[in-house]
Amino acid sequence: MANTQKRWWPPLRPVLESRDRHPWAGPTALAGLVAGAAVAVFGLPPVDLHSPLHYAGVMGPTCGGTRAVHAAALGHFGESWRYNPLGLPVLVGAFAAVAREAVGRRSGRWLNVRVTHRRTAVVCALVLLAALAANQQAHAELLRTGPETGVPTGLLLYAVVVPLTAVAVAVRLYRSRHPGHHRPPAPRSLPASDTERLRSPEP
After folding, report:
1. Which residues touch 30 (CB under 8 Å, ≥6 apart)?
2. Element housing 115 (H / E)
3. 152, 142, 137: which is closest to 60 by C-alpha?
4. Which among 88, 93, 153, 179 is least buried, having the fewest CB atoms inside 10 angstroms?
């Protein structure tokens, strides 16, 4: 009897294909590696990019990410893990994405990742995100320490990005609910008598 059970694990499956389904991965990873190299050479940026919740003592999953990548780029893997466990995987993943881009362009075969079970993938992502947020909150005292720049750049960025994002979402929702406002008017149909007159040959 054929097996009719659904595949629940793993939720992601790597496949080799002739088409690049992740064209953004290589350029994004290369830009990240360039930024990481600049941070490793010149040090951490002299701006404060924390979210508003950070100042209230609430640590997010990405808190300490910049310092974690900076430490990983310098080879301080233990320090990178303390600041954020994502630091080293992000660095390794960036190198892997650049290597994938180079091999794919040379061979014409691309290593793509397909979601075999979306619900399982979402649940796993949410569980890992919650675990990371709990870990970062447990290291709140470490993450709240750092060079004092006196420039609340994060607050300024949020003050600009949040309203722009809200406007973009509102415009998208309005267009999806009122599609007729953005379509050209349909050509008016001629009366039946005019249509017959146009079809009939001239005497």
Report:
1. 94, 98, 101
2. strand 110-115
3. 137
4. 179
Strands (E), the chain: 12-17, 110-115
Q: 83-124: per-residue pLDDT in tens?
A: 999 999 999 999 999 999 999 999 999 999 988 888 888 999
Distance CA 47, CA 76 (A): 22
pLDDT at 175: 75
For residue 202, give the 3-state DSSP assignment. Answer: coil
According to DSSP, the residues that pair with 113 across neighbouring strands are 14
Structure token digits, residue 28: 């994004």
Instruction: Please state, in angstroms and rounded to a whole number, the distance separating the CA atoms of residues 159 and 20.
Output: 37
CA atoms within 13 A on the CB side of 143: 32
Residue 157 three-state SS: helix
What percentage of the chain's residues is helix, strand, coil (to nearest 5)? Answer: 60, 5, 35
**How long a stretch of residues is the chain?**
203
Judge if the upstream peptide bond of residue 10 is cis by omega within 30 degrees of 0.
yes
